[in-house]
Amino acid sequence: MAFSRLLRFATPESRYNARSLWLPPTWITFTFVSADIGSFSVQLLGLLVVAGAYTSGSSPESTPSTLRNGTHILKLGLLLQLLCFGIFGILGARFLYIGRSWAAPGRTEWRLLGWAIFGSAALITVHRDSCESCATFEC
Question: Which residues contact 42 (CB under 8 A, 6 or more apart)?
């Protein structure tokens, strides 16, 4: 949401188009929240499959394949989430690059906020990558 608000604040009205931003500011939050919910849903599905392998009614022969399938689904959800973060980073880096010339006199503080938003997103991504093996039961 902060990125969408930053876009609305710093982008001149004449630049509210797909050529400049690739995505209208009103769609940024909806797009990335929807992608996150979708990737979380896939991860939840993978965890439910893994949990189903440990129910009392499952046969011992099907447990390894069920665990493997659930782990693959979980990894797919993590991959989708990393892909979403990567696209977010690309849009943000492009915005910071092309927005250098948009600053009105006395309104340059938005660049610092932009760097803070994308710096924290990068740190979250690095943290997520370092914890990915634990999240997929491979510790």
Answer: 73, 74, 76, 77, 80
